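Researcher: Going back to the complex we discussed earlier. I've cleaned up the inputs and rechecked each line, so this should be the final set. Can you rerun the prediction on the complete assembly and write out the structure?
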Amino acid sequence: MAVALKGLKGKILSRLRLQTRRDALWSLLGALMGVALYIALSPINLPGYKLMGMITVQFVPAILVIPLISAFFGPTAGFLGGFLGSAGADMLFGHQIIALGIINLGYGLLGFLAGLPRYKDLASGRTLGKLLAFTMIGFALLVIAYYTGLVYIAGQNQLPTLLYNLLPFATTSLISLFLATPVVARLIRLLANMVRANRL
Amino acid sequence: MANRFSGWISRNKLFSCFLIMTILVANSTFILTPSQHPSLELPTITVAGKGSFDLNDYPSLDRRVIGLVNLFRDYYDVTNLSYASVNDLSVLPPIYTHYFLPFTTYGIAMIADSTPSFRTDYYKDIFHKLIAMMNSSAMEQLEWVKPGFTNSSYAGTGNDFRGPTNIMWTGHFTLMELFYESIYRDNTYSSEITGYLDQWNSSLTSSTAWDGNPSGDLGRWGTGLIPCEPYIVFVQCNAIPFYTMRLYDNLHGTSYQEASLPGIAWWQEHMMDPRGIPIDGYYVMQPLERHRTQGGGFQIYPGPAMTKGLDAPKVSAYGSAWITMFYNAMGMEPLADSLYGNWKSAFVHYSADNTAYVVESYYFPHDFGASEYVANLFAYFCSREMGDSELNAKLENWFYKPFEGKWIGDRYEFDTSALGSLSAFTYPVINFAWAWGHANSTLSDLMTPRGDAFFAKPYISNQSRMDGLYVYQACYDEDREAFILTVETEHSQVLTIDNAAGIQGVYTSKGTYIDWTLDSNQLLLNLEPGTYSFVII
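Model: Rerun complete. Updated structure for the full complex:
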């Protein structure tokens, strides 16, 4: 029993990329990178337009950081990067931490889910597809956290939450995450390969 | 080469597919996002013997505000003062209709006051049309007949729609006219203005109450306030005549405002709820049947209006935002600051993505309807009036998130059509609110009218409906005796400036501008399409 538990613990720590001190340090480094990049990219406001009234078509660079950090550094880095990055950006840029931070937790869950699988080869379509699938599951959790936080914890009415918060947030986030996550992950891998091959 | 490329594509199908989609969507965001004109850059202009003029030191209007005024020009068909047109209230929101006309006028007053030396029919027409609509039979029906207020509703209390029992209509109507008089120094409406001021003064200083009993110094209603609905006084509705009295006193050196002092002291003593919020109404007589039932059995009289179904005074974020900004503009900053602090802690909720919204009643924080929508509108105005730019930005982020602002010709517009039938309410509200929220003047600024001498100085006089002219700055600097002007024109035109007899030169940041002539008292400034900043000495 003890052996089995130890084995399970080892598997969990391995999946969380915390099994060895080296893994843990890499996760911490990834989390710090995630927090710094999320905060740095938060103020960027790219052009966007409304489609059919309220669906906003716009790329939000900051949210892309979360699955990418997860893809390269694992779920712990993704979770901390998303949770602390979004909370740090909220505090730094004068936004309020609302709904007891559950929305920030949602960003953390996005990072956690996106980082759960091991992505051995981010050059292959299969691996990119897996990253995209887990990112979308994480995004669904983020949307649930966002809605739950605003309606059930902050006590907002459902209609304005939908029109004024959720629709603009979810559409911009979905477009950014769904389209750009595999593209940027692959580009980073290409870049890394070129660096390794001393071609840059 | 082609084979290598096609081979790479076939090995990277998913990546290629998503890359193409990303490029297409990203490209669309740049192409389809409605183009906005770049922000106005105002220069420093140096004039020999006068020194440097940094035009950023003078008020200026955002191009979008002018575009929204152009929208109002067409939306309200402002030059059409026919009976049919002024009685056509269908362009106004179907609810809060009677409030919308005066508050739109106050927004226009702030816009006009932002370019005080642009005094043409262009803005004047809007004042005249909105005042005429407020004075129309259709509005009278809406205000008097449609709510079912009959002669018996007011039995014995002074029964007249335009009389002393309707401070909401008379207060707004008089202030609409007085803003026009103050900004244009035009006496068109002066007899109506003084008529209502005298009526309020008489009502507030009467030592006999409506029931024949002595009322001390609290006037006919025993509260120092005047009702607007039968038998009930509101602090917010009385803020309008009280502001009007002060503005009139500032213009004419009278002392009407003294009649407001007992009422202001009275409501602070009798109409404050435990959280320091002015109570939304106080019954001076037995309420009408339908008002009695609103209190859910708790309503007493005389006494504060009660929250439906609760043994608690009624509160309103909308009404108290209105009170706060008007009392701030009346120069009662300590009172306004205190009210604003209480109001923020009671009604403001911070939300995700740097937004904030208010609830109409803190007893019902989950409600959302027309009252809450209007509460957010007034919260937006109030935060601006109180100089709270942080909250103002969060409220604007929330309020305007679903709507797209775009240019259509010379008009700017927020499209609310996605809301379907709700658009009849949101379209005029959203568009006028942005213009009010971005004017370069406030209710406090309007409380200090310019002196008579200002109106003898140069001003743009006759560009009444010249499409394609955007007057960003038009202000005479009396201290430095210089006319500050920034305009954009889409067509060649001659700009006429009156009171120009002493003009000696027109200067730009590049030096002297020579394309002008002086014709007696008028300066004719020839402009080709483009944007110009001038200092005219």
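Model: Worth noting: Chain A has a mean pLDDT of 93.
Researcher: Good, that matches what I expected from the previous run.
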